[in-house]
Amino acid sequence: MEAWAHEDVTAGGGHCRIDNDRERANARTNPPTLDVSLTIPAHNESGNIGGVVTAARDVLAAAAATYEIVLVDDGSADGTAEIAAAALGDDARHLRVVRHDRQRGYATTVCDGLRAANGRVLAFIDGDGQFDPADIGRLMEQLREADFVTGYRAHRADPWHRSVVSGVMNLLVRIFYGIRWRDVDCGLKVFRHEVLSAASPILATSALFNTELYFKAQRLGFRIRQLPVTHRPRLSGRRSGARLVPILRALRDLVRLRVRLAREWSPKAAAGDRPTPRGKALAVPAPQKTLRPWWRPWLGAVPAALAVVVLRLPSFWEPHWYTDEAGYVSTAQSLLRGHVLYSQIWTNKPPLDLWIIASVVRVFGASEAGLHALTLVSALVTLAAVYWAGSRIFGQRRAAFATLLAAIALGLPVLDAELALPESLLIAPVSWAGAIVAVRLAGNREQRASRRFAWWPLIAGVLVAAGIAIQQTVLAELLAFALALAISPRVRLRDCALFVSTVIVFTLAWLGPVIAMAGAGKVAFALVGFYVPFTQSVLPTSAGGQLWHFAEAFIAGALIVGGAFLRRTAARPTWFFVLWAGAALLVPGAAGQPYAHYLIPAVGPVALTIAGLRLPLPRRSLSASMRATARLAPQLTGLVIAAVMGSVAGLDWVTPAAASPLSNSSRNLNDYYGGALATALQQQPRADWDARFDSRVPADEAVATWIQNEKLSDATAVVWSSDAWVYALADLTVEVPTPPIYNDEVLLGINGQVAAYVASLQPDVIVTSTDAVQEFPEIQSVLKTGYVAMFFTDPDTVWVRADVASQLP
User: Fold this and answer.
1) Burial 416-431 (b: 16+ CB within 10 A, else e)
2) Could you give the CA distance from residue 298 to residue 302 in angstroms, rounded to a whole number?
3) Superfamily of domain covering 5-270
4) N or C: which end of the chain has fewer CB within 10 A?
5) What per-residue confidence (pLDDT) applies to 594?
């Protein structure tokens, strides 16, 4: 005859649901009679369960007068329950077994054990032997001053990918549920029976029941404590977590459970009249502190978010005007047609930039509203990163100020941040990477000695790698981030190495396939070689001028890096923001290119630098403020030099004195916002506002309309112009290596090779612009051999091959 009790559980469908009404009835009629009930979930743990139950028995026997071990056998096929009973010997009378007819999952298994438990103190521990049952006694001792005591794994003895998954899930739990405790899913917890009664009904149907317990205990004001516990490698059996399907299911349930809790549960209702095991009303302990909703700390960022949205409103009605944006859209359309990047369609940008734009083009076409909605999202994500870092380092007031500065810079069109350009997209991942690094640099030094796996270098590395896959100039930010981590006394060198290694691995992950498809030579020229003559074209022509140019950049960099080294021990890492801003500004400064959008990556770090400066305030003496700022003097001097060098990029939509040399210096912000308002109120024709952007806008639209009306969109075509919008607007296939004709001259040669290439294609349609014909006149020889001018609108002309023209209506 068996000396241990068991019961079968064959219903329930696998849902982890502890019913509130049943709990109330049980509380009235069957109050807990034992001191402690320990639940052990197990599935095919024959190799581990014996050691777990015997060690647990020793701890419980020493800590409590009466106890029970509730083993929930989750459909095991290896005799797990029988081995547990045999291991306990005469003490098997303390063992109760709950059996599942089939495997129901971890959450249901634990919940069934808690429902069957008969102790005033409840506990559960995993049956795989990775937790030390001796820690149960340590946690139980804390019940003198707490109601809900949990462990956290001080050093997780799992493969790195499980630690990464756990870290990401804990981060999401913090965001969605406002739970500030670490390692929520740790499988070792001890709590009073009243906590389970108050938390019922348990709505979770997956491992998120741990999250629900934390959430409800915290919201109900129960006293929560955490202690570090031992975590050992699994010695026998098979791990069941960190597989793709359970991870995806957990992400789905994360959102579902939060919605259900918001709809079906409230602390006020749960804290009502609930009978205790003695039949008395349960007095829920008063909260130790007021818990704020998860969104309340973000209220300081709302003005900045509203500002950038309002300032960006006219961008949704902008015409198709910016030539670089036209090139990216046309290249994206070629990718969607199946062309291979760098070989069949050429660009000088990494692939992620083009594929992001291609995803928007697939949904919205060449719509400027769709493209600018993308950059608005990128700007909002960037502002969130600025505010998040600023609030944790400088406080919410300074964070709100920094975010508002960034919002104004990104909202106004002066940097062309509304356009779908690489710089407008890369700021989102890079700003979050910088924010994560900055917050880590502001941490305490004791964290450096921790042996726990750190997930933040991995996440920051992935974000930087994403930035590099959008624009290769992010290598400057990578260098700044890696240098800051390497010199900081608050960061472990292995975390710095993990960050850099992650960037390298994820960069090689896309670079390898791209090289395999297009060839190393083509990819190297596109991403690196192209920029050598591009930069040389704007550098001083004299050797002395070039020497001074790079010496100036070196001096700025040396001051910024040297100052960072001197300030690396500061409590607030303002020095890091200066280092980051300097790296972002030296890119346009060293390149010497007059494009305002080159300044976009510097917006976030510059705003945080300004917020971090201790300027004289009413409550702070002038001398104290000046001393604090003076410590950053070397870095700030270098930053000013970098800013002066970067000013060559200029600004758009401003007075001619500050405008970029290549921009239309006659336009200003009054034209942009005033013209948009006048157009919206029908006080001026839309064409007048469009023409303020670029004089070619009306001609491009007219040419595209004519081509579509003549049903020539499927014809082979070449646009002999620096403005490639006709490709996108008329849905023409790009037949030349790359859309802007000036880049074709770089790729194929400047001595007539491009015209010869076009002649070999014999396209049905050639669209020319007056300025391109004047700059590259060799196309005229092609036009004279069998092409007829069919449509003209200044400055564009549509030429159609004679045999095709004869068939037009």
Assistant:
1) bbbbbbbbbbbbbbbb
2) 7
3) Spore Coat Polysaccharide Biosynthesis Protein SpsA; Chain A (3.90.550.10)
4) N
5) 87
